[in-house]
Amino acid sequence: MSDATADPNKVEAPTPDDPLAQAKALDNRDASGRMLAADGTPLKRQLAKSLRVQKIRALMLIAPLLIFVLLTFIAPIADMLFRSVENQIVSETLPETVEALEDWDYESGEAPGEPVYDALYNDLFLAAEYKNHTRLGTRLNYELTGVSSLFRQAGRDVEDRGEAYLDQFEELNDQWEDEVVWAELMGSDEWLEAQRAWSEDSGDRLPRFQLREGVAALLPETTRSFLNFVEFIRTEDRESPLDEEPWSRVYTALYTDLMNNDVSAYSGPHAELLQEAAAAVPDFETQTTKEFFLSVDDDWADPELWGTIQAFSPDYTSGYFLSAVDMQKTPEGAALRNEDERIYGLLFKRTMFMSLMITFSCILLGYPIAYLLANLPARTANLLMILVLLPFWTSLLVRTSAWKVMLQQQGVINDVLVWLGLVGDGSRLVMINNQFGTIVAMTHILLPFMILPMYSVMSTIPPTYVRAARSLGATNMTAFRRVYFPQSVPGIGAGSILVFILAIGYYITPEIVGGTTGTFISNRIAYHISSSLNWGLAAALGTILLAVVLILYWAYDRIVGIDNVKLGG
Amino acid sequence: MKMTKTLLATTALTVAGGAVAAQDMVDSMTLVSWGGAYQASQVSAYTDPYVEMHPEVSITWDESSPEAVAKLRAMAEANNITWDLVDVTAADAMRLCDEGLAMEVDHDEILAPAPDGTEASDDFGDMIVSDCFIPQIAYSITNAYRTDVEEWNGETPSDICALFDTEKFPGTRTLERRPINNMEWALICDGVPFEEVYDTLETEEGQDQALAKLDTIRDQTIWWTSAAESIQALADGEAVIGSSYNGRFFSAIAEQDQPLEMLWDAQVYDIDGWVIPEGLPEDRLNRVLDFLYFATDTQRLADQAKYISYGPARQSSAPLVSTHAELGIEMAPHMPTNPENSANSFVQNYEWWADYRDDIDAKFQSWLAQ
Q1: What is the pLDDT of residues A52-68, one digit of tens each?
Q2: Phi, psi of A29 (to 5 degrees)
Q3: CB contact under 8 A, B357 and A532
Q4: Looking at beta carbons, which residues of chain A come within 8 Å of B225?
Q5: What domains are there in chain A, each with its CATH number?
Q6: Based on C-alpha coordinates, what's the Rg of chain B?
Q7: Is A237 close to B2, i.e. CB distance below 8 A?
Q8: What residue ranges are annotated as transmembrane (chain B) (predicted)?
């Protein structure tokens, strides 16, 4: 009788060893001696395949959470990191100006030459039509005071410059105010036909605009601005160029072209009109673009302004990060801000200091409570636990406002002190709207985050250890110091990390009870998000805060060891 | 631009023609306002009567006006505008217009004329500070003081400079934690005439001068960020004199009987009104325009003053302002526009602040934090 379990090959039911046993039995090996599975594929590959299936299955289980974290946590952080350096707005709104400015040198101390102003006129006219110029003004105003209204004003006035030329052309021949004349001059016959057949109510798409042959060479500037115009009314208004008088910008361009180019050889539609204008333009009243911008505002000649535009023309900038460390990106490079405008360094230091103070206060207050919780009989401990958790279930705002009532000069504590005669009525203590108030209120709010991890670690320390130490002759103090305390350290570590990281980003409590000396960097970040709209600077400040936390975490890991952190037994 | 104009024109035509039902309109609207007594006054004066006329319409309120600019920008970036009509201050309306986040409107086309036929733009007059802005009320940021301060020996403040007079009027002050208004008041009390305030503030020396003046009271001031804080500080006796919105003071004094008295001197006017977010789909826009035509007419604006002491933005509404809906007191004497109150008022320069806000705010906050 052989033992049925001794030889797996004799067992009826399959066992995990079967494939191996079968492989051995068949001695499945290929020419190079690799082990083969039953179906002839190498065993190694089959094993990898089955492991992969398992991995995918595991991944699918965590997929909902993974996607959630990616979308709601990682993606916003990546977006924030990106925003802190992103600066495309300048080169997108003023593409030609940025290019023309490349040849200009800030060191020269002079305003740039005519080509830069020509480019600016082009860019600004288009930006004003699309209403992008004020946004750029706001952006540059963060760097140089006064740019905001400079752009707003110029955006209003660029229209006027063209109007002056438009009027002169129309005075010469009123055909110039006819949009059909313009369409016939600029557009090809094919397009004209298609466009005439199109009607707004038909719902069809507007026919694509086609230039008349040769017109681009004849009137280059005019062509360019006319194309911009057609593109604009097509996409923004869905209008036909046959129904819209061209922008005043087109007339300015026509003037430039007629001054520079000879049109006498032209023989297309409206050749006479064009030639008549060509003869008349030298007598037109004219103004260079530079003169025009200077007539809008003298500041357009300020090298400081042009230097700022130049400094912020790259797509990515270090400007926000420099601002976040009390510096400034100037045309000459990075420079420290004026003494009376520095604030972020102070706020970062203060945020660190107060967060550490809050963490230590939480350790001091939380440790004895956690010890009591872990060592009292269950009934009393539960009652105590409810007292710890009760404030946790109360609204944050209510708790913060309650501290206001307690701590203010006409508040409960001061009233009691005055009633007891400890403090004179005229010299009530100032305990709120300063650092003290913030530390007290936040210690109270964050205390449960310290107590709970401490408690869960302490409740796993067997009381027998301390008893054993005592029976070996240790005093109470020594037993606590040498036996109990070292075992509770992981709880302190976990609680400290929780409290510190929560504190460093706290916003609402310091806003309400912090006054002027008790506010955190997060209050400033909130200001830039919701009031000044300087999201780039807010992102840079947030990135620095994130980096500081990561560095501290790393330092903690090096000094204490992250393995020593326990959130539970 | 052209499209919106034609759209607006057709809307105005149909509204005028009474053919409202023929239009494509949604039956729900999200309005954004400031909460509190102010929003309650809008509900009573505007939306309740409107819903009575159009029972199918449901209105949702969102109390996000303090961060309206930031939220609208975020919505525009996400391409998902969930608001239909937003109540903002004039300065914010200008920024929204600058950023292309609010729709430019033709006031005469979309708003009702005055009962005597005056066009809306003339009726609102200077209050229209931006093409996107449809004014509702004029309010002011002004000061009030406690009437029971023993240390003052019976003296009461009569002008704005009492804020800085710690000898005669000792005690804690409460002021807003931002430079706007405070810088102006500091300069005024340092001898700068009203019309030179902004020219002075434009220079480094002027800014330093204002901060030096504020230095004299910095450490005995509670710097508030929300107007409720200042009322609370004054009501609890934490502060004895300080600034807030005149409507908040009115409700503290008239409705809650707090021992406070208004100090109207050098009150700073401001305007509040609606903006329509840019890019609303047509059916939602139609509903908004229909509501707006109703809610900004002469009678409705006058009605709002029954509930809160803010002056209606239309000139034609002023004679219709009557008594408080519950207390029955005459409202006119509590309006910032009342001649007695506005004798010495200061007009804020929005455009100037749009340029200088970032710079001066950095200085101001740095000064506060030292």
Answers
A1: 999 999 999 999 999 99
A2: -135, 145
A3: yes
A4: 511
A5: 8-83 (no CATH), 95-310 (no CATH), 317-341 (no CATH), 346-564 (1.10.3720.10)
A6: 21
A7: yes
A8: none
